[in-house]
């Protein structure tokens, strides 16, 4: 009887790699869309994002600054100025004055209760250094214009020779733009009545264009607009341009806002609070 040879086992096929399931494909597609969206967003907002990155880096490295750093003055303008608050810390005002800073606006108050802790010192020291000084209030839309005007008036002893008071309007936390405008108008009216000089309205380009344009044309405009060669608004619309919020001036350790006045120094001085008229002698 013939011997039967054992049948060799059939070869086992190598396992096939698992295919991508729906979840994996969805995740890859979402990642691709996200990357494309981020690229488009960066391309549209390159200047702003780079500015934020520079400011973050400047904040992190502030401890290594000496207070002697200097940003070149903006060409095409002859009258340069800064605006400061307690954020700038201790300021060497005589040193600032030696570097072509002709005017300075100093934060005095915010909302209905906050006074800048360095206002009184900066107010006196700027004038002693020969810098034309002014004061500003940061407007909070959740408090009434009357309350905020009262705080500013109680804080700022404007005198003849000082620049007009400034209202900084840029906080977007409001529910009704008409109410916000009404309270801004109240502040401007009360402060003008108290000091006898027309206040200056400050805002950034985007906020002004969306919420304020056409409503306060009777007030001089101080416009913040960065990363541009010139403000987008016509020159007839503004008198001061804040062209940078990351400038350096010897005498200040860290970044400070840089401004230019549109006009001559004599024109700037013409804006100042006038001297009170001399009293007439009795009987005349």
UniProtKB/TrEMBL annotation:
Coiled coil: none annotated. It comes from the Bacteria. PROSITE patterns: GLYCOSYL_HYDROL_F25_2 (PS51904). InterPro entries: GH, Glyco_hydro_25, Glyco_hydro_fam25_subgr. The keyword Chaperone does not apply. CDD domains: GH25_YegX-like. Keywords: Glycosidase, Hydrolase, Membrane, Transmembrane, Transmembrane helix. The keyword Membrane applies. The chain crosses the membrane at residues 23-43. Belongs to the glycosyl hydrolase 25 family. This is Lysozyme. It comes from Hymenobacter caeli. The lineage of its organism: Bacteria, Pseudomonadati, Bacteroidota, Cytophagia, Cytophagales.
